[in-house]
Amino acid sequence: NRQLILAERPRGEPTKDTLKLIETPIPTAGAGQMLLRTTLLSLDPYMRGRMSDAPSYAAPVEVGGVMVGGTVAQVVTSDIDGFAVGDYVLSLNGWQDYAVSDGTGVTNLGKSPDHPSWALGILGMPGFTAWAGLTRIGAPQPGETIVVAAATGPVGATVGQIGKLLGCRVVGVAGGSDKCDHAVTNLGFDACIDHKADDFAEQLAAATPDGIDVYFENVGGKVLDAVIPLLNANARIPVCGLVSQYNATEMPDGPDRMNWLMGQILSKKVKVQGFIIFDDFGHLYPEFAREMSVWIEAGKIKYREEIIDGLENAPKAFVGLLKGENFGKRVIRVAQD
Ligand code: NDP
């Protein structure tokens, strides 16, 4: 049983010493348990937070513990009603080949799901995050302008496409021209701006001539800086993530603009609301799953993923994800079906 354990807490970007691959015996499931074999492991930005012991909404992984993560797995042995040998499940095995589960928090996907990896993306946590954050906090009205960064990732791409379905102008922000082309040509965004461009702030202003009504916050940093002056009165900011800051080791450079920001929020009556998807909106999951399935079936939502072979490649792929090396949802294929 190969396991990737947290060998030390990283300072800044995780290094080759952060995670260590070890080999342990395959565990045995007891009464009321099942043995799961991981086939797919989801890589998600929140995992950086779990490597750190800074105060957070969730407990960190212990040093020496297996990295946490959402997985698609196959049932190898089972002593639980409703889970039969050979079934695929959505589970939280973490970064390892095998895990024992008592079925808590595990969803049965059946013997031959059409797109097992989608349970980790468009039909799972990231898709749900986009849907709930946009519709419940962003609450966009037809004709309004939405801006979302990480626009080709699983959250941002879904936010933008739902925004179009709701009749909004959608402006994406992404790293590089390939990603921006994809957002406009394939995902139907009205515009997409490369945040690496020198005149990024000017380009964003030009692409939002009517201002910004909803800024779906995925990244923070200079994207946030460019957005704030463009916000309209009564704008909404669902605060979903701040991926540009996840490897930060100290407060950002520059003058303290905290009071200026609060002044903008006050004078423009901006609603800023952070959310943690399952804490705040878990009860809405069935509604999301129904609505998203209909959209996908009708070809209204597109989904791009990037599957990388081999558990041993997960650490490097994860570091790259935080820097935008991914193009679409990053998933590790841990074992062939
Ligand atoms: P992505 O697959 O989109 O990966 C992160 C992306 O962030 C990168 O690909 C990169 O895209 C972009 N990025 C990285 N650094 C910067 C930077 N300095 N400036 C601008 N963009 C940057 O991730 P997800 O779709 O899985 O997640 C998106 C956000 O949603 C994350 O912040 C994540 O933490 C958050 N999240 C929050 C949840 C919640 O419950 N609140 C639940 C799930 C996700 P590019 O190359 O285009 O810049």
From TrEMBL:
This protein's record includes keyword Secreted: no
The UniProt record lists the keyword Oxidoreductase: yes
Gene3D superfamilies tied to this protein: Medium-chain alcohol dehydrogenases, catalytic domain, NAD(P)-binding Rossmann-like Domain
Keywords: Oxidoreductase
Sections of the chain in a coiled coil: none
Alphabetized Pfam families for the sequence: ADH_N_2, ADH_zinc_N
GO molecular function: oxidoreductase activity, acting on the CH-CH group of donors, NAD or NADP as acceptor
Enoyl reductase (ER) domain boundaries: 14-332
InterPro entries: ADH-like_C, ADH_N_2, ER, GroES-like_sf, MDR_fam, NAD(P)-bd_dom_sf
Name the record gives this protein: Enoyl reductase (ER) domain-containing protein
Natural source organism: Rhodovulum imhoffii
